[in-house]
Structure formats: C-alpha cells, structure tokens
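During the no-cost extension, the postdoctoral fellow (Dr. R.K.) reprocessed legacy sequence entries with the updated structure-token encoder. One reprocessed record is reproduced below for audit purposes.
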Amino acid sequence: GGIPASAPDAIGGNPVNRISPLVVDPFRKRMRGCCETSPHANWTVEIDGRRMVNALQAHARNGGPRSLRRLDRVRDIEVIERNPVGRPTRYRIRSVDDVEISAEDLKSALNAVRSSRRGEDRLKSSCIEFVSTPRGFSAMGRGFGHGVGMCQYGARTMGDAGASYGEILARYYPDCALSTAWKPTRTQQLG
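Re-encoded structure tokens follow.
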C-alpha cells in the first residue's frame, strides 16, 4: 500500500523489533511507484454495522479492551494516531462510550467474525480510513499485510525493471549490510 509500518506498532513491543530497518524513519525519502502494481494496493470493504458491533464485542470477550463490551451502535471510527509517515496506528471508536484501540487490534477484531462471502469482506491490512454509510461503514484500505519490511509486489516490480537484489534489499532494509554468515565446507558442498 505504500505506507510502511514500524514493527513495534504492527508486530509487538519486543526490543528486537526496534532495529533500524523495521522502524519507520520520517526523514528518509520514501520511493514511490512500486506498490501500485499490487492488486491489493487500494481496496474497499463494506462492513455491516451490526456485524461490526458483534465483532468488537467478541474481541473484548477474547482479551481485547473490556470497554468494547459496552458498544451499542458504532457512530464513527476516527484515526487518532498515525506513525511518522501517515499510517494509522490507533483509532477511536465512537459509541455510548468512546473506545481507543490499536490499528492491528481493530483489524484482527473485525476479521474474526466472517460472513459467507469467502473472505471478500476481510480487511487486508490495518492501514484503513473508515467512512460511515447507511448500513455501517466503508473501510478504505491500502496494502496487504502488516506493512513492515519488504513488499513482495514492490520487489518484483523493481526486479522486472532491472534492479539487483542488493538494490531491492537496500530500499526495504536501509542501513543494513549484506554479509556471509556461513560458508559450507568442501565436504558439505560435495554432499
């Protein structure tokens, strides 16, 4: 979707997720033009209002924010926090009581209750803007996955345009160096 996520926001707070290439740097120029080849670059999912409430209440019963249990009707979902390059990281759900929830938790909660439409109603990433509709919400999203690291479609587009593996890796993992971590012995090579 072209808007990267930091691993601490998307995957978890483990210190290993705070290494340079997995944390979004707002000052690093982001190249454009590769992710648009993905069939998942931009997408929209319609979510019925009742289905949304049921999914959020179920998420509360399974360890999500307890305040989600009191939801009656979702009036609005607004982004209240973005990472340095604009990807949503936290939302406020407006209902009887307002509830704040991380972007990844909201995506997981809404994907936990499936309809019979074979995955067509699943949110592909947590990079979403919500717009109220008469029946519920339109979730307008970007990308497919957690947004951390390499975009497979972007890497393929770069490769098709002649980029080397080193150039592709340098784009997605800046400030990293390639090195040999292991070399097989002659006996191992012969098999």
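The first strand starts at residue 42 and ends at 48. The radius of gyration is 20 Å. The remaining legacy entries will be reprocessed before the final report is submitted.
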